[in-house]
Design goal:
Distance between the termini of chain A: 31 Å
Radius of gyration of chain B: 24 Å
Number of helices of chain B: 2
Order of helices and strands of chain B: HEEEEEEEEEHEEE
Number of helices of chain A: 1
Helix content of chain B: 10-25%
Strand content of chain B: over 45%
Largest sheet of chain B: 10 strands, antiparallel
Helix content of chain A: 10-25%
Distance between the termini of chain B: 40 Å
Shape of chain B: elongated
Largest sheet of chain A: 12 strands, mixed
Oligomer: heterodimer
Number of strands of chain A: 12
Radius of gyration of chain A: 18 Å
Largest interface: A-B, 35 and 34 residues
Chain lengths: 200, 281
Amino acid sequence: MKNSILIISVLSLLFFSCSEDLDRTIFIPDENDSSLPAYSEWGYNSFGAEFDRLYFLASQNIVPCKIKYENDSLYFSLHGIVNDYDLENNRMILEFIFPFEKIENFTELIKLNDLNINLLPDYCKVVLDFDNTKTIVDVLSGKLHFKRTQLLFVDDSINRVIISGVFDIRFRQNGYLSNISNGRFDVGINHRYFLNAQIE
Amino acid sequence: MKRIFLRLVCFSLFLSVSILFAQDEPTKKVNNFKIGFEFGMNVMEGESIKPEQIRQNHYSTYYYNDYYYDYHTDYGLFGDLATLKTTYLGIKPEYFVYNNRIGIASGLRFTYASNSLVSDRNFFLWKLKEEGMNTYYVRINNIRQDVSLLAIPLEIRFFPNKRELPFQHYFKIGSSFNFWIQEDSYIEFADSKMEKYSEVIKKELPDRKNDFSVFVYASFGFKIGKLKENYMIPWGNIEFQFPYMMVTKNSFTFVGQSYYGVGFQVSLQVPIGKNVPIGSK
């Protein structure tokens, strides 16, 4: 019994120490715009986009991406900050909601590989949660491209799915035109950041 | 490269042979040669050469005004600096001129150099392979490469004091011309079961572009011991070397250009034949 507890403790420690490293946000600056992270496919848990004249970026203090499957749709949300120092609360969530085939656990997220989504049709939604206000924005044009997904094995064990892609949205919020452009993400999703609301 | 090596070896042999002939020279009044045995250690910091298979794992954050405004400012690099450690043993004859206040030395050194890749965390991740939509990483604590070198040192030292003292300081400039003999790599995995991938990773390590390297250094040291004419009393030397630099690039797998380094050297010098104190003509 004691041995079992010891083995489980050691294995848990190994798993969490490994996960901790892969959970961190790594910022590799873009060569053309050093305020944005470069597009990557390493699972750096980073994202960035131009938000009008500001930047929407991943933060070390916030889990950058969470995915939920509910009502036959996938909710892909990016959680970060906007670099406006005048704001009291600069946290922002950008969520893409689109219909997708059933996903029961995080490993099935590799089905997103090379998926191009036009955000204009009514069955797609973009939700902006900014400055304590949650709004479904009126998309004028937009695309979300999951360029590549990878099932990541670390030391021969399944660890997470790496999802990398780009996005651009032109939208109207409270009557005013806004742009989130030149967006890119490279995130790792495991069971901690994936929820199937129809099962759990 | 081989021609340079041969010339340097010949020069070194010439110095050594000269010592023997000098011993047998009955007409020479004084003998300015000393034969020395040296040991030294050095540490150099240099540009890190990071294989492209390594996942970046370094970050830093600074805070603007308060904790709300955090931005990652560092470039996420896997350590900017690499360390090269060298240890050597050698034999080094020295010839004295200018009233025995300037010594010129050369000889042969066997140098053991070690350079490694070490994460700023417990381990780093190495991309082993990609198969379809699967990507495989392994956790590595460190990769060390040990290199054996045959080196030819060339040193000039100067004793500022005109008379010999039992404890006497000196200044030195030196260089070491190093030729690669052999190397071996060692990989320490976070999970020992992954050692099966050791040979695959070794094959993927970046190629060293240069079999030849040159170290240059400046030293400040002390000679310990006072010579008496006609007595075979050895000298001891202890010196601190700074800066210690590698002037060639890409001579080691994980270290590109060196920036700076420090070291020390201890040596024992035995006079050959008649002793001539410093300051004697």
